UniProtKB/TrEMBL annotation:
Keywords: Signal. Residues 1-17 form the signal peptide. PANTHER family: FIMBRIAL USHER DOMAIN-CONTAINING PROTEIN YDET-RELATED, OUTER MEMBRANE USHER PROTEIN. The lineage of its organism: Bacteria, Pseudomonadati, Pseudomonadota, Gammaproteobacteria, Enterobacterales. It comes from the Bacteria. GO terms for molecular function: fimbrial usher porin activity. This is Uncharacterized protein.
């Protein structure tokens, strides 16, 4: 393969700080050899008049201003390696475009995720100990993926092991689908999601061509310091990336499901974490023209999740078909023992005006009094992004024409009731209207999130919940505000307001200390709180904080250390009536062809990175990660069916060496990917 290198040597000579720097560029093109010339570099921005001479860069530089930054080159598929100690930058073409979409199904491997948690508490009455152990294991063998999850809990004299789930699955790439046998959850695209065990085959939108996948558009945020950003949906991590201080943006983030909102967590170098909720900008009931997405299942409900309920067989089929570029039709059925539900609806892509879907569901079932009941429901969903991509809005509303509608999960709950005291049945029968609104707005130096949930019952009772949060950053000082309001016809009004300020404390070198005073109001009762947080070590892998809360008169101390083989957390809490010490340890053990590697807790799709005979090499993808004595490390999360880049810290490489075979990784869902990297000499001028 044709190798393309651009070598930039930054010449050192006395200049004013604002003056541009002379840069020597050498393009290494096989078989032409080296072609040297000079350009002007204005603070890391390379003049496009020079870059236009490279055929593979002509389309890129035409879209930029008069110069192109290293970040823009990286986003275009070039590896940028900076050797600050040599005043040198090397830019390497990663791959030809035609190779980017080759799906890597990974290697045969086995892994174990573990969490060990122990809490010792002394209060006025007694000493208590709680122990909790979570074990999630998996085996990948010839394309099949076995997953098991279970936990042990010991508290107040009660103890026991519970098997949470067991399933085996396989990606059917040629069909764009997944085959799964065992425990799981039903799709929430049309019917409500419900726990189930059996055989399922369903389509995966992430296997559609790039232009036809449902994406979130740009997700934006602001980091005060060099930070680690994680975008998560439910338990699944969609993206994890290190960013520089200032505004950042991620393009076309793909969702894992359509039920959970996205959560964006920004972990600053001082250890503070900011969480932002992002509404979904996609609807599950709209798909690309000519595409069919489906979910077929046959099996039974999972009775252990409903106390005394017994397992009931049922089957489900849902389908969404793209009639045109702007219209989709969908429907399905759910059939079980004494229960049947059918649905029919349509989805519309209104282009700039957003996405809209409306459906009707009817249900027939026999209650625990042997009475046949019929109910129906109408549901509408709407999502839109506006104001130059800064505003995201998601609205869902349901109307229940009569009092008899029950989802399968609700039906299972009512079957465990005493017929003489049908509390759940009566609660569901009251429903008439439900409305949920979520919006998020990106500000130049922060974000605003609001959510509203409203329900109106047939007896005129009403329940309203409103939350709003604001975060701002100005000259290194962060400001945050949170307001919650809740009121129901049979509940007293509840109002909570939290105000916090984060002030940097540059007392010692590299301590990243931050003072965070807070003011809290709970139904008019005002209390104060204060926290001091910070981090240490070169990659901020050790974080800590101490806090005091006036309302509960309690003091707490927290420390967390992230390292290659796991994550350790210690907490201490003291209050007048209790004292608690908590220890938490998480990590993973991965067995693969190169041996056994310890790592931080892994996600659904992850990788093993091995650098030839090079222990202690830093991996920038996540905090605290370096290669072990065999030169290997566990990269905990990759985005399935997307390009992923392993970022190796050049400062930790042997003197005079660089990575020879940097490349994108395009993994299948659930894959364990192995990447071996070789070293080579840094190109010389």
């Amino acid at each position: 393969m044709k190798a393309l290198f651009i070598t930039l040597m930054l010449l050192s000579f006395p200049v004013l700080a604002a003056a541009p720097k002379l840069v020597n560029l050498i393009f290494e093109l096989e078989p032409q050899g080296k072609i040297p010339f000079s350009v002007i570099d204005d603070d890391g921005c390379i003049a496009n008049t020079a870059l236009q001479k490279i055929a593979s860069l002509k389309n890129l530089v035409a879209r930029q201003r008069s110069c192109t930054t290293f970040t823009e080159l990286s986003d275009a598929g070039f590896g940028v390696t900076q050797f600050s100690q040599l005043n040198l930058v090397v830019i390497q073409k990663i791959q030809e475009e035609s190779q980017l979409n080759e799906i890597d199904e990974g290697i045969d491997a086995a892994f174990l995720n573990y969490e060990l948690d122990r809490a010792d508490e002394d209060n006025d009455r007694q000493h208590s100990v709680r122990e909790y152990y979570q074990l999630d294991s998996g085996v990948n063998l010839h394309g099949w993926m076995l997953r098991h999850s279970g936990h042990y809990d010991k508290q107040d004299g009660q103890q026991g092991w519970l098997n949470d789930s067991l399933a085996v699955s396989r990606n059917l790439l040629s069909m764009g689908s997944v085959l799964k046998l065992g425990d799981g959850n039903g799709s929430s695209d049309i019917f409500s999601s419900n726990p189930r065990t059996g055989v399922a085959i369903y389509s995966d939108d992430r296997l559609l061509p790039k232009g036809k996948r449902p994406v979130m558009g740009n997700i934006q945020g602001v980091a005060r310091t060099a930070a680690e950003v994680t975008i998560q949906q439910g338990d699944r991590i969609l993206l994890r990336k290190r960013v520089k201080p200032g505004q950042f943006s991620f393009k076309d983030v793909e969702v894992a499901d359509y039920e959970n909102l996205l959560m964006m967590m920004v972990r600053e170098s001082d250890g503070t974490i900011t969480v932002t909720t992002i509404p979904l900008l996609v609807l599950p009931t709209i798909t690309a023209e000519g595409n069919t997405k489906y979910d077929f299942f046959v099996g039974k409900t999972r009775p252990e999740l409903w106390e005394t309920a017994t397992s009931k067989p049922y089957s489900q089929l849902t389908a969404v078909y793209g009639l045109t570029k702007t219209t989709s039709a969908y429907g399905g059925y759910l059939y079980g023992n004494n229960y049947f539900s059918g649905a029919l609806g349509a989805g519309f892509n209104l282009r700039q005006a957003g996405l809209l879907s409306v459906d009707y569901k009817g249900v027939r079932y026999r209650n625990n009094r042997d009475e046949d009941k019929y109910g129906d429901a109408i549901k509408a969903r709407y999502a839109v992004g506006g104001l130059s991509g800064n505003l995201t809005t998601n609205i869902q509303g349901s109307y229940y024409p009569n009092s008899k509608y029950l989802s399968l999960t609700e039906y299972q709950e009512t079957q465990t009731e005493d017929p003489e005291y049908p509390f759940m049945s009566e609660m569901y029968a009251k429903r008439k209207y439900q409305l949920e609104v979520n919006l998020q707005y990106n500000l130049p130096k922060g974000s605003l999130f609001s959510s509203l949930s409203n329900s109106w019952d047939r007896d005129q009772s009403r329940m309203t919940t409103f939350n709003t949060g604001l975060t701002l950053l100005h000259k290194g000082v962060s400001y945050s505000a949170f307001v919650m309001y809740m009121k129901g016809s049979s509940y007293s009004e509840n109002r909570i307001v939290n105000l916090n300020v984060g002030i940097p404390l540059n007392i010692f070198e590299n301590n990243n200390l931050r003072l965070q005073p807070g003011l809290n109001s709970n139904n008019g009762e005002i209390t104060k709180s204060v926290m001091v947080s910070g981090s240490s070590l070169r990659d901020s892998s050790l974080s800590y904080n101490g806090s005091f809360d006036e309302r509960y008169d309690q003091t707490s101390v927290f420390a967390n250390y992230q390292y290659s083989a796991g994550d350790t957390t210690l907490r201490y809490l003291h209050a007048p009536d209790k004292e608690r010490i908590n220890y938490n340890q998480t990590g993973s053990v991965v067995l693969h062809s190169k041996g056994v590697t310890l790592g931080q807790r892994v996600g659904d799709t992850f990788g093993i990175v091995c650098i030839e005979q090079s222990p202690g090499i830093g991996i920038i993808n996540q905090i605290g990660l370096t290669t072990n004595s065999q030169g290997c490390a566990v990269v905990s999360n990759f985005a399935a069916y997307n390009n992923n880049r392993v970022a190796i810290d050049p400062v930790t490489l042997p003197a005079g060496k660089m990575i020879a075979n940097d490349e994108d990784i395009y993994p299948a869902d659930g894959a364990v990917v192995l990447r071996k990297y070789q070293l080579k000499d840094i190109p010389q001028l």
